């Protein structure tokens, strides 16, 4: 399978009164056709900024794409104008958010909103667009879709609104769906239904998915591959099995121990990662995880480790995987 998306050495920063926040610092990853990739990490680690960069949706405050490229379907998104991006957004790449109301207009009927999304990118008669909208509502499991088309978002329950948003996002058959914490606001049962639905639709439509979440359980459920981010960088990548069964980066190990998961032994105590991530106004020059890492060595303070292959396809950015580390480990910090 070829790559649908290739993000290469992306650097994104924001100008603030306090200075320049380096939100994304050299992020690289790929998404293959039909693949579901999870991006995980604590809030502020740059996962949402990375995702929004792909759609060039960072306008407040204005983002500075300092370097790197975002190759989607063979062309770089970074130099594209707003007008060119409008043709891509909602058509080739769609995004769904935690709060459906950020995508749904409360004053317009659900059917009209989906139709508009379709008509914006396709020259078809309104009647046909309405039929597409009806089919989409049916596809996402909304009962009585014909009647529901003429209702407003407030007449839908939270879970139904989420389904309607997914219907709208998928109405133009995008090649890539970016979902930013799509189920966080929903109760557990509805959350499971929505994830099941997304997985099912992904398989049916062969859409690639980027799922951004702090919830590792959701990733285990949905994704083929995982990207772990910390302080604006990718610190580990691997398949879901690799990340859950043999994590290589101390941060990934910490994350796995700090959040409850379905497959965890109930008696296993949760262990939060002590400390806070570094200030991205002035990121450390060495390993970003240094201040919180139990395994830190002297080299970690001054030199930043590169992302390197630690096992076939699994990568990690940590000095422990350097051939010299066995010697250094003994010396401590
Ligand atoms: Fe810890 Fe050093 Fe690895 Fe960073 S490079 S995660 S500080 S061991
Ligand atoms: Mg976020």
TrEMBL record:
Compartments, as annotated in UniProt: Cell membrane
SMART domains in alphabetical order: AAA
InterPro entries: AAA+_ATPase (IPR003593), ABC_Ni/Peptide_Import (IPR050388), ABC_transporter-like_ATP-bd (IPR003439), ABC_transporter-like_CS (IPR017871), Oligopep_ABC_C (IPR013563), P-loop_NTPase (IPR027417)
Transmembrane segments: none
Positions of the ABC transporter domain: 5-256
GO molecular function: ATP binding; ATP hydrolysis activity
Keyword Cell membrane: yes
GO BP terms, alphabetized: peptide transport
Membrane topology of the entry: Peripheral membrane protein
Family label: Belongs to the ABC transporter superfamily.
NCBIfam families, alphabetized: oligo_HPY
Full protein name: ABC transporter ATP-binding protein
Lineage of the organism: Bacteria, Bacillati, Bacillota, Bacilli, Bacillales
């Amino acid at each position: 399978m070829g790559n649908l998306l290739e993000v290469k050495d992306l650097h994104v920063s924001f100008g603030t009164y306090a200075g320049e926040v380096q939100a994304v610092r050299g992020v690289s990853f790929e998404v293959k056709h039909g693949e579901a990739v999870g991006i995980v990490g604590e809030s502020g680690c740059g996962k949402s900024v990375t995702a929004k960069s792909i759609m060039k949706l960072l306008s407040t405050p204005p983002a500075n794409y300092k370097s790197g490229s975002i190759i989607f379907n063979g062309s770089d998104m970074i130099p594209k104008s707003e007008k060119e991006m409008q043709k891509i957004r909602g058509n080739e790449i769609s995004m769904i958010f935690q709060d459906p109301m950020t995508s749904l207009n409360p004053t317009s009927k659900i059917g009209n909103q989906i139709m508009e999304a379709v008509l914006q990118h396709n020259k078809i008669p309104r009647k046909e667009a309405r039929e597409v909208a009806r089919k989409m509502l049916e596809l996402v499991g909304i009962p009585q879709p014909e009647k529901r088309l003429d209702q407003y978002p407030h007449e839908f329950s939270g879970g139904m609104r989420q389904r309607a948003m997914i219907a709208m996002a998928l109405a133009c058959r995008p090649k890539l769906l970016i979902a930013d914490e799509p189920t966080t606001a929903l109760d557990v049962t509805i959350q499971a239904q929505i994830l099941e639905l997304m997985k099912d639709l992904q398989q049916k439509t062969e859409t690639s998915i980027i799922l951004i979440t702090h919830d590792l359980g959701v990733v285990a459920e949905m994704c083929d591959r995982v990207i772990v981010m910390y302080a604006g960088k990718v610190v580990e990548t691997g398949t879901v099995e690799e990340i859950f069964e043999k994590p290589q980066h101390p941060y990934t190990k910490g994350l796995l121990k700090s959040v409850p998961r379905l497959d965890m032994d109930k008696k296993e105590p949760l262990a939060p990662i002590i400390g806070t991530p570094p200030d991205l106004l002035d990121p450390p020059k060495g390993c970003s995880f240094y201040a919180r890492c139990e395994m830190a060595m002297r080299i970690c303070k001054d030199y930043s480790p590169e992302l390197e292959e630690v096992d076939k396809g699994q990568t990690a950015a940590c000095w422990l995987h350097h051939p010299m580390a066995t010697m250094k480990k003994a010396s401590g910090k």
